């Protein structure tokens, strides 16, 4: 009884985690019941007979969770069946010419050679990645067709029926999976990447604060909570195989929503790899910071705390903004600011270090402290690389140019209205300035919206220039301030 | 033509990488040709008829590369077919009682409910990991049996034939895969772990030397070579899924060679996870050391070089010894010494740091230098943890106690013969002392070989004690030197 209740609980958890699983189960049941009608409905049974079982078999094996996987498997299966069917008929003809004693021997040799060769080809890495299933079906169909041909009189008829039922089964799977609550592998890959960004941002947003306060509230409860919050990023470490299989499936998918047929899935993998590189650093930072035998004294933490905190916070914000812009499929413009802030924080930290602040620190404290700093700098470098890769992805995938309302509120409070003259970027784009509040106040008379720049550093009274990035080509431009309201 | 030549070249590479692949291909061809004889040989065809195709199908689908995978799939398939066959007959009987109009409707409902439910259960993580294939076959067989029962008069007979052929097909796969050049997943997991150890050792053995000489020969050729040598460890970063699937297969395998049926595969996964943790650190060390903007001056490297080099060298030696003792399935006794040496090197480095050597170093140099040191210390800590886990694995797997000839020759040159009195370890084991050269010179009169200790620190004239580890319980004991030759 307890066991049953546990299974029900587990079932609820599985369904809650991803409700599309329940829908998928219904879809499979539906298609299978539909295809079974080949047996029940007399006219259909008259034309296909026992071969109808191939439709049932195809549905069970081909219907996968995502559209891409189903399409890939379905197309692979149909193509392999067609090809192997043709070859099987040929083999059967060739064998039957050699008389009743030679035929079984020749057939056995054909089956042996074909199976051994195809099995070997399945070990080729490129074949294994994409066509493993085709080859399985190829071996199967060839053996069945050539061998049953030995007993059946009308091999061509048999093959024809078998292929038709396979096509019917495959087609019903594909149609149902596309038109009834589709699950797109591409969409899943997209969301996986966005959530990976978010997981890293969770760590980075909190790390600075926790690192600087770690000695004060060191009770186990706090440590447990921190550990749980931080552990989120660990799933990123092993996401490679998942990302790769999703990208493989996504390649089969037709255009859907904002994803085109030839969406740049390769770029997704590149960004994913960089995120994973960053996760390795975070993992090292987390373990050596949690397990540090030589705790760094509060004194030195207070002195270095401000830039250290800002470095971690700003790279966390950049990650968060990238996650959001990926989710909304807009160009990641607001992250640039945060990366620049993190860079400038790391510069002020370097200046602080150069000012001789380290002279009084114990060597063992130094090791722990400087490792954390060095890893943070490494993480900021990677964040910049990730941002670059995401910019590439965004332009390859033709993400929208819309400038998002910045996420972090302190920036909105501090926004300043700046009026700037039209300027030219390196590539001779005429750029028009819009304000930081995201409402696209056009201050120049140039109407060409595609050549706007967004202001990336707040203008403060007294400064004579601000930094801006050309939306067309991505260059950073320094603009003179004309008027400040 | 060029394309064909390329395929042949690729084929040769694939075969050379693992010659067992060629053998496997032959085995598959052989079994398939064998099972096809069901069609050719009249008496066999008389008893099974078209159902013989199920044997062919089972062979194609079940025959996997390793024994464990084949056994797991075969058993899963037979069990699922039996169970689904029984249920299918039941469903058929139940439906046939409701008359000719009700029967197809009821059958369709059964198929729908069974398929939807089983598909949902496949999403349960624990089911997915081990029984995914069973459930696929369960859905398939249930649908085919209950539905073809609608047309066939003798469902029980049909089911009986189908199950027999599935069993025959499965059995031939299992027998051939076990008795003809078997590929054991357990053996593969074992070798994978040993090679992962080796990959990390390659990096660590060279890192110290290369780090200390990096500025002198900085030509691109050297950098390229170093990069290639070092890149070996990267495959360890993503070995998790491979290790897990091998362990899953290995669980199905019967005892073979030195592996028992219930070999501690879980412990293998634990050791593998720790190796991966170490690889993350090595990856960080490698990237931040190769990309260091602030190169550390030769001057300071020379001062710290000796202990730094020893730390990396000794942990690399420990890894190498662990790799060898895992390969030979002996207890990893000689690694203990190297870990202790690495520890003592890290202690002398710490002393050196405390002596004020860092006072003259530029802060930015410091960041780069101390990060490398801190990561090395981290790696040594992990090496010790890995060694512990390997000791556990060794005693769980009942590895031999034989003390290996130490691998690294410089130790043999420097060996010193020490004669010690018998002492007692904490747990009251009487321990007998053997020398460092691995030749088991017994200097006491105690004959109990299982209670030996190996000497872990070389005795130098003037010292009055050496460290030893009790082989029975693992405790480190300090022994007084009685006589020194």
From TrEMBL, chains A, B:
Cellular localisation: Membrane
Example of a GO biological process term: malate transport
Ranges where the record places region Disordered: 436-460
Compositional bias (Basic and acidic residues): 438-460
Major localization listed first in the record, in broad terms: membrane
Gene Ontology cellular component terms for the protein in this record: membrane
Highest taxon of the lineage: Eukaryota
Keywords: Ion channel, Ion transport, Membrane, Transmembrane, Transmembrane helix, Transport
Membrane-crossing residue ranges in chain numbering: 21-40, 52-71, 105-124, 131-151, 163-185
Topological relation to the membrane, as annotated: Multi-pass membrane protein
InterPro entries referenced in this protein's UniProt entry, alphabetically: ALMT (IPR020966)
Recorded family membership: Belongs to the aromatic acid exporter (TC 2.A.85) family.
Name recorded for this polypeptide: Aluminum activated malate transporter family protein
